[in-house]
Amino acid sequence: MRGRAQRRGPDAGDDFWSWRGQMYEVARSLTPESIRAISRVAFRELRLAGVRTVGEFHYVHHQPGGAPYAQRTLLADAVIQAAKDEGLRIALLRVAYHRAGPGRPAEPDQLRFCDPSVDDVLRDVDALRTRYADDPDVRIGLAPHSVRAVPPSWLAELHDYARAHALPFHMHVAEQEREVLECVTETGQRPVELLADRGVLDARFVAVHATQLLPHEAKLLGAAEAFACICPTTERDLGDGLPDLTALRDAGVRLCTGIDSHVVTDPFEELRALETHERLRTHRRVTFQPIAESPSAQLWREGSTLGALACGFADAAGEVVLDRAHPSLALVEEPYLLDAIVFGGGPGLVLASSSGSLTAHAQRAT
Ligand SMILES: [Zn+2]
Fold first, then answer.
1. Fold (topology level) of 30-352
2. Residue range 101-106: average pLDDT?
């Protein structure tokens, strides 16, 4: 899709939903072989950009038409293997998907993502947990896709399972205004209100995107010590809008970032966009009081340690070695090195990445 999705579609009014139609076309065409090959390319690009840990929001599970493969987790295994082939740690976030939206059964192109019941979802999660229990580089998580694609009645049971096994629990939350409106129509509650009401918010909950939240929803996430995974380059590519990061930070929500659609694979850009997009939204500069010693140190921590935590890993393993002699850093004074890396750096700085990660060791840049 890279490149191809940047042309105008046949109908006027390209938006998130027309992009999604293009994405579904690609998803429909995937085979176990091609999903592994494509995943390897994506993971290689991440590794070369300095990433060591990927959380894969994985939702192509079944054959076109929706029939399970004889080996039910064939595609999840292909993605995990691709990450291992490229030397990445992976949290395979097994997505639960059931419907097109409230009162609407799954569309034909969504059948590959769908399971008839919670039991089918958990059977696969059980199998994956058992298979990778002894692999320190693999975590299995549970990811109800969204309040749109998963009925409210599924949430508590999925969350009970995740809590019982201490699994990361990721959901798309309020990426699009339409999701919020449909949720209010179905339940009388906005998405985060519903999630709080169903008891699924806790310190392992990760709200992906969190674009269309009201301040009181940020407070509900913060009170639960939940994460928000902001995906700035994808959100701006899709025209999602700008999340209110000031409200999220003020509420104590832990932030991390996602590459998401791989429209750009540049973790440095994701980190600085947490702050630079907020500047565009608020018409101010340096929009938050850092908990860490500087805004850059805090952003770096959000992109490394907090990202790893959100994926169920205890820490951001390894380190990344950056090129101090690179022209973009050559004239930078030592005390401001990390600031220059976060606000002006890119994958071209990464010298060693096979065992590297975006950890707080950039000061060791050689
Ligand atoms: Zn997304």
1. TIM Barrel (3.20.20)
2. 96
